[in-house]
Design brief:
The protein has a 5-stranded antiparallel β-sheet. Helix content is 23%, strand content 31%. By secondary structure, the protein is of the alpha+beta class. The chain has 3 helices and 9 strands; from the N terminus they run βββαββββαββα. The longest helix is centred in the C-terminal third of the chain and has 17 residues.
């Protein structure tokens, strides 16, 4: 997707403005038309040109490809309250399900983690009809609450002991130059 300062977008484009680039789970982001955002920021006396990304319609569903240590997971986030919320991973009506991993996401996500020397890495993606899956976020400290693992009941989420052990093992591999 297109990313950059607000001034780089056409007036009629919908943009996601990142008010807090360190916020998690969709917080710190707002959706506005570019021309409305420029007016709002000017009226509020904000002189800075905020970082934005193109809004991808149909974002009520997203994927998170995640390496936790040596284990690869892929979750689908689905917003069930389409009228009240444009983000797939925010609010009380979010469904999270473990899906069969998408093999095409496995190696690129691994390489990102290895390049960053991060034993825990997640890439969030949304689907665009014309362009396929688009990466919209990279996280080395992703929130995992509510994310079911393959051996845990869905209501329990991933077992934290197995997560910690897997991350510790992968940390050692990264420092030794290991591969999957």
């Amino acid at each position: 997707p297109q990313v950059g300062p607000l001034t780089s977008f056409r007036d009629e484009q919908n943009v996601v403005i990142y008010e807090d680039s360190f916020a998690h789970r969709g917080e710190g982001k707002i959706l506005l038309r570019a021309d409305d955002a420029r007016c709002d920021y000017k009226a509020a006396g904000k002189a800075w040109d905020p970082y934005c990304s193109e809004w991808i319609p149909g974002g009520s569903s997203s994927l998170r490809a995640c390496w936790i240590g040596r284990s690869f997971y892929c979750w689908r986030y689905r917003q069930t309250d389409h009228h009240a919320e444009w983000r797939s991973n925010v609010g009380p009506r979010v469904e999270i399900e473990l899906v069969d991993y998408v093999e095409s996401l496995m190696q690129p996500t691994w390489r990102v983690g290895a390049a960053l020397k991060a034993p825990l890495v997640a890439v969030d993606l949304v689907h665009d009809e014309a362009r396929g899956w688009l990466a919209i976020d990279l996280n080395t400290a992703p929130g995992l609450q509510g994310c079911p693992g393959p051996e845990e009941p869905a209501h329990m989420g991933i077992g934290w002991r197995s997560v910690a052990e897997s991350i510790a093992a992968r940390w050692g591999e990264l420092n030794a130059g290991g591969a999957p």
